[in-house]
Backbone:
């Protein structure tokens, strides 16, 4: 009997769930899971998770005291909520969960280190060993140096928003546990620049991850490569054999329903044939290569801004919820606030380029799959999780039937 693509992929690559929806994670049973503020914002909108949000807010308010400002309470609650969702996820997955450091700290090494230590301390207080948590940090030079410090302390890191070989090399030489190169966002940039349609084989994002993977294996680096931000299953199948791939429920479902042979495309045994010289990386070399790589420069900056928007949206959601818990008269406006924040040109639509947040959330909000989120779609499902849950239910039903 022919196996489906997902079953074959799991035989050569660790599949990671790119979602904050705990019920979806339960049904997809990945080894690891990764979250970020936009995914947590989505999950936090679901009625079944309101108790987690409310409890976290009330605990933060009680801990800080009556004199604490709303901003102070929300800030503490944000960190606690990220850990709370992480703890729920770790009850399900056998491996690791990635928890993200505030994107606004991406160019601040010292504060990033402090924030990461705090997050790990919260996991430790809950009885979770550090080796089950990856701290997600943007792959700026400052972020990489923060991660290097943390790795030496036994705090493992996932360097995200990675678009260029120079970022990957700097991470490997700094002893980082894992990197997340963004396949789909690299493709987006090239499509916009060239107007060309790319096959999966010639996809610039696929080629970038292939180059990084082969470089790591050729020169014996232990840093794991986890491809992320996929636009279609063709990108995924072209990276079969990569260490890890983090995939949204929508694409997991497509892999589950496709039956075809899946050959291994990335193989450490073949990496020695990769024609590239080893590059010694220091800050001057990093800065030079980053300046020369227009795509990486633009996408890193765009990604940090996008994750910052997601943070602001989550803080607004928590602030609104705090008012409701306090019996205030302020009506929650999270959906409207998020829409205004992301609709950069004010044309009434949010494109994928304007969104810049988690791809899984964009796909879930874009109900009619036209590449744009309308105000109505945002109001109907900021949680994105309702649609993610439907996809998970369909996947689980088919899996159980088999």
Residues:
């Amino acid at each position: 009997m022919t196996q489906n693509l997902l079953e074959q992929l799991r035989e050569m690559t660790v599949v990671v769930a790119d979602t904050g929806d705990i019920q979806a994670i339960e049904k997809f049973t990945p080894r690891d899971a990764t979250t970020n503020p936009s995914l947590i914002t989505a999950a936090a909108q679901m009625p079944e998770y309101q108790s987690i949000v409310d409890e976290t807010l009330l605990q933060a308010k009680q801990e800080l005291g009556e004199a604490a400002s709303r901003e102070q309470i929300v800030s503490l609650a944000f960190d606690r909520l990220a850990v709370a969702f992480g703890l729920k996820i770790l009850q399900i997955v056998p491996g690791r969960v990635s928890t993200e450091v505030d994107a606004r700290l991406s160019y601040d090494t010292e504060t990033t280190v402090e924030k990461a230590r705090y997050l790990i301390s919260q996991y430790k207080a809950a009885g979770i060993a550090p080796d089950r948590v990856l701290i997600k940090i943007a792959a700026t030079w400052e972020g990489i140096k923060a991660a290097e410090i943390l790795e030496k302390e036994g705090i493992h890191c996932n360097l995200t928003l990675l678009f260029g070989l120079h970022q990957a090399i700097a991470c490997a030489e700094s002893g980082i546990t894992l990197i997340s190169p963004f396949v789909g966002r690299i493709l987006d940039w090239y499509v916009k620049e060239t107007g060309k349609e790319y096959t999966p084989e010639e996809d610039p994002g696929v080629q970038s991850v292939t180059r990084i993977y082969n470089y790591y294996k050729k020169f014996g680096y232990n840093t794991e490569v986890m491809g992320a931000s996929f636009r279609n299953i063709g990108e995924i199948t072209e990276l079969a054999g990569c260490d890890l791939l983090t995939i949204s429920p929508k694409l997991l479902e497509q892999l589950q329903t496709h039956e075809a042979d899946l050959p291994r495309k990335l193989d450490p045994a073949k990496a020695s044939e990769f024609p590239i010289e080893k590059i010694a990386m220091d800050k001057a070399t990093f800065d030079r290569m980053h300046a020369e790589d227009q795509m990486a420069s633009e996408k890193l900056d765009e990604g940090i801004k996008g994750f910052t928007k997601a943070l602001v949206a989550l803080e607004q959601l928590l602030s609104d919820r705090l008012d409701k818990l306090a019996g205030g008269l302020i009506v929650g406006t999270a959906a409207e606030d998020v829409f205004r924040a992301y609709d950069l040109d004010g044309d009434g639509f949010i494109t994928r380029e304007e969104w810049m947040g988690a791809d899984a959330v964009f796909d879930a909000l874009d109900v009619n799959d036209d590449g744009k989120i309308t105000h109505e779609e945002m109001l109907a499902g900021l949680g994105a999780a309702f649609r993610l849950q439907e996809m998970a239910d369909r996947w689980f039903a088919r899996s159980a039937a088999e």
User: Anything to note?
Assistant: Residues 328-334, 382-396 have pLDDT under 50 and may be disordered. The first strand starts at residue 14 and ends at 18.
